[in-house]
């Protein structure tokens, strides 16, 4: 059958057919006459429904395209065969018939079982032995039950198996079935003439031959004979219901219940960014720090949401979608040029509230990003992860700039200068809280930082760094535009030293308004 169903446990009908097959193939039984001991053994086994002891099993399958022996459009037609089996590995299936056998029948059953090589499938592999009732391995719980019968517990289910009728039961059924079939045989020809005695007897003999003489003959019928005569179920068989544990046949290998490791929250994760060819000049320009951070943030949000799990530290919103309130503690993404060649090669992800396990999983899972005008994705890899101290120990020339982002060699600084342009979050006025200095102080206060003693704006006409800042992208593609699209390059002097990173103003969570520590 090509329906993908696994017969578990093996049906009583299958077991008796396997024993008969073993006798004919390995015990040299004659095809014309079954040994009397074998006949009485089958009679006794068919008179009782067995009980089972089932080991854990895995339902497996294979798919094959079998040739059909005909061609269509110059190609041989095939049909897919869905082949299933139960994988029990080192488990043991035990079957018990509650019958009394004499010594000869017991010896024969022991011999048949020891020679049993398969259970109706040529590719199956069976190693069996006959055990006595005193064997401690016998603990049978899978037993027959009537349809609709109360289940032993909620963890059980009923399955339908094919079982033989008893010898006497089949004889009675056959007698009635043959009589009914013979009565239905027409006694006249197609032209209405009565059939002769010989013709009528021949037809009745042909009808009677479609019903095997006894139960053993039923068990010996092959599939081709059943199909040719139109049997939908083998004669001499019946459907019986068995109770079995609900999860005795798994659809996949059982997974060990390991306790999931939950990493401690970290404040920093550093990603390296590279092209597939290793060409650094194909990386995005430092002027594209904002759009690169936006692209990566979108990928992180997408990755975190694939498991239907909300990550406030990445999204910056609570579960209802409302922005988090407080001193900007969710993730900041700062694109960096650590080798100083004018092209972005790293992204520092910093979250004062800590990147939890979900956020860390999302960061580790994102393996690529894109850039405007790029012909291929950019590759991402985790370069560092951990505390401020671990970031300060980042090796190589890249660690020099990273230290300035974090507060310089001493770890904190009073003087800071712009790394990316500061964009005012509100409309600028000449004085008051909405002046440039007033907005800088407000941004510092919202982060719990001390106010600035001095805010100096660098002149783009005389300062090369300020001139280069004019090329920076300053407007978010996915968010609201700033009140004024203008970037300032600033020198800040704070009242007391602070630790970095320091990011202020519009787009600060995406790398705008970033400062690095300046030497005193």
DSSP strand count: 17
Strand content: 15-25%
How is the biggest beta sheet arranged? 5 strands, antiparallel
Q: Helicity level, as a percent range?
A: 25-40%
Total of DSSP H or I helical runs spanning 4+ residues? 14
Low-confidence stretches: none
What's a concise summary of this model?
It is built from 14 helices and 17 strands. The protein is of the alpha+beta class and 520 residues long.
List keywords for this structure.
520 residues, alpha+beta, Alpha-Beta Plaits, 5-stranded antiparallel β-sheet
Overview of the structural elements:
This protein has 520 residues and is an alpha+beta fold. The chain has 4 domains: 1-165 and 237-258, Alpha-Beta Plaits (2-Layer Sandwich), CATH 3.30.70; 174-235, no CATH class; 263-405; 407-520, Immunoglobulin-like (Sandwich). It has helices at residues 12-26, 36-46, 103-115, 167-183, 197-209, 215-220, 223-229, 289-305, 312-315, 357-365, 388-392, 398-406, 436-446, 464-469; strands spanning 51-53, 57-72, 75-87, 94-96, 156-164, 237-245, 249-250, 266-274, 332-336, 346-355, 368-369, 378-386, 413-418, 452-457, 490-498, 502-503, 514-517. Strands 9-10-8-12-11 form a 5-stranded antiparallel sheet. Strand 2 and strand 3 (75-87) form a beta hairpin. Helix 1 (12-26) crosses helix 3, helix 2 crosses helix 3 (103-115) and helix 8 (289-305) crosses helix 10. The model has no long low-confidence stretch (mean pLDDT 86).
């Amino acid at each position: 059958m090509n329906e993908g169903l696994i017969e578990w446990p093996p049906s009583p009908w299958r077991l008796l057919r396997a024993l008969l097959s073993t006798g004919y193939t390995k015990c040299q039984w004659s095809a014309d006459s079954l040994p009397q001991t074998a006949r009485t053994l089958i009679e006794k086994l068919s008179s009782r429904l067995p009980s089972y002891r089932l080991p854990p099993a895995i339902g497996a399958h294979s798919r094959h395209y079998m040739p059909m022996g005909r061609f269509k459009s110059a190609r041989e037609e095939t049909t897919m065969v869905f082949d299933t089996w139960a994988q029990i590995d080192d488990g043991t299936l035990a079957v018990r018939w509650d019958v009394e056998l004499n010594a000869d029948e017991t010896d024969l059953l022991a011999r048949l079982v020891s020679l049993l090589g398969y259970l109706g499938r040529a590719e199956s592999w069976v190693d069996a032995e006959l055990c006595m009732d005193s064997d401690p391995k016998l603990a049978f719980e899978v037993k027959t039950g009537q349809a609709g019968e109360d289940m032993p517990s909620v963890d059980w289910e009923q399955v339908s198996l094919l079982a033989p009728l008893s010898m006497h039961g089949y004889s009675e059924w056959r007698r009635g079935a043959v009589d009914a079939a013979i009565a239905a045989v027409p006694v006249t020809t197609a032209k209405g003439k009565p059939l002769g005695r010989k013709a009528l007897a021949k037809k009745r003999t042909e009808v009677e031959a479609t019903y095997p003489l006894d139960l053993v003959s039923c068990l010996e019928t092959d599939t081709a004979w059943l199909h040719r005569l139109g049997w939908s179920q083998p004669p001499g068989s019946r459907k019986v219901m068995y109770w079995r544990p609900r999860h005795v046949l798994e659809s996949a290998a059982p997974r060990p219940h390991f306790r999931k490791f939950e990493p401690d929250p970290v404040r920093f994760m550093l990603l390296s960014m590279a092209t597939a060819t290793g060409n650094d000049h194909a990386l995005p320009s430092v002027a594209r720090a904002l759009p690169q951070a936006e692209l990566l943030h979108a990928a992180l949000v997408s990755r975190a949401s694939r498991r239907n799990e909300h990550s406030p530290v990445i999204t910056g919103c609570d579960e209802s979608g409302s922005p988090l309130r407080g001193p900007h503690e969710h993730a900041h993404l700062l694109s960096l040029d650590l080798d100083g060649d004018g092209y972005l090669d790293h992204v520092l992800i910093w979250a004062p509230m800590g990147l939890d396990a979900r956020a860390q999983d999302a960061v580790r899972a994102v393996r690529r990003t894109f850039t405007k005008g790029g012909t291929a994705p950019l590759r991402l890899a985790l370069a560092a992860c951990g505390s401020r101290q671990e970031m300060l120990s980042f090796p190589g020339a890249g660690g020099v700039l990273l230290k300035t982002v974090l507060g310089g060699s001493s770890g904190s600084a009073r003087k800071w200068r712009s790394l990316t342009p500061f964009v005012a979050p509100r409309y600028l006025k000449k004085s008051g809280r909405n002046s440039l200095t007033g907005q800088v102080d407000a941004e510092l206060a919202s982060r719990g930082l001390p106010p600035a003693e001095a805010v100096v704006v660098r002149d783009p006409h005389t300062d090369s760094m300020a001139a280069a800042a004019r090329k920076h992208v300053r407007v978010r593609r996915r968010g609201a535009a700033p009140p004024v699209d203008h970037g300032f390059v600033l020198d800040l002097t704070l009242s007391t030293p602070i630790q970095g990173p320091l990011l202020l103003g519009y787009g600060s969570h995406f790398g705008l308004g970033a400062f690095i520590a300046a030497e005193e």
